Every structure is written in C-alpha cells, then in structure tokens.
Amino acid sequence: MADTQYITKNRLSQEVNKARVWVAIIGAPIAGFLMYKLPNLWWIVGLAYLFSVIGAASTKRSGAKGELKTLKLLEKLPDSYVLFNQVDVPNSRAKRGFTELDLIVVGPNGVFVVEVKNNNSKVTGDDQAAYWTAHK
Questions:
Q1: Into how many domains does the chain fold?
Q2: Domain span at residue 66?
Q3: Which letter does DSSP use for residue 10 in this model?
Q4: S-S: 56 plus which of 15, 23, 35, 123, CB 3.0-4.6 Å?
Q5: In whole angstroms, what is the distance from residue 111 CA to residue 72 CA?
C-alpha cells in the first residue's frame, strides 16, 4: 500500500462547510424579510432559501468527492510510492498567487501530477490524440 503520511484533510470539504454557513447567515435575514413582505408567497421564499443552503458550493463538494475517490484508488499502489495532496505551487498569474496540485504520486518510475475533475460526463480520447473531449 502506498505511503500516505503526507495526505492532509481536503480543503474543498472545509470550503463547502464555510459556504453553507455564510449562505445560511446572510440568507436567513433576507428570506425572513421577504417572507414578511410577501406573506402569500412565504413557502416559495422558504423553499428557495432551503435549496440555496443545500446547494451551496455543490461544485466544490463534487470536487472533494472526486479527489477522495482518486486517493482511495492511488492508495492501492505498492509501498514504493508516496502520495501528496493539495500541494501549492507558486503562480504569479493566479488570483491567490499559487496553483494547487490535487495529487502528486512519487514512485520508482517517476513523479506524476494528478489533476482531478469530478463531473457527470464521458471523456473520449487516447494517448495518440492531441485533445481529449468531455461529453456532458
């Protein structure tokens, strides 16, 4: 089994929780005000607020799930492999000044950077293709 001592808690999961809290904190007074002003439509406002809290950061939640699935697969590599996750690499063109590499695999046959995408699509292409295509 691969060495996972450098694996840290997933930041995307933490960001999902923060997003939900902020949507709840900011949205609750707005929803309450709208329910007061629109008494005949209180249930629509309530449902919209509920769905916004539930759906907050759904893209990040999907990304976190994808990274976890990929990590579980990579953990099955032999002992000679070491896994790293969420490695920040300086990037002056990025908003935050760095780019995050999802996973790095270091083994006897090389160093591999794994970028994880978790969406509902089918990717077509092969090792000879100049481009791969995602069919959503």
A1: 1
A2: 3-135
A3: -
A4: 23
A5: 18
Q: Can you tell me which residue has the tokens 């907050």?
A: 56
SS3 labels along 72-133:
HHHCCCCCCCEEEEEEEEECCCCCCCEEEEEEEEEECCEEEEECCCCCCCEEECCCCCCCCE
Which helix (H) or strand (E) element contains residue 6?
strand 3-6
> How many residues can be counted in the chain?
136
- The span from the CA of 9 to the CA of 12, in Å, is 9
- Buried b / exposed e over 86-98, threshold 16 CB at 10 Å, is beeeeeeeeeeee
> Could you list the pLDDT tens digit for every one of the 136 residues in the chain?
999 998 888 877 777 777 777 777 877 787 778 778 888 877 787 777 777 766 666 777 788 888 889 999 999 999 999 999 999 999 999 998 999 999 999 999 999 999 998 877 888 888 899 999 888 7
Whole-angstrom Cα distance, residue 35 to residue 128?
A: 58
| pTM attached to this predicted model | 0.63
Phi then psi for 135, rounded to 5 degrees?
-105, 110
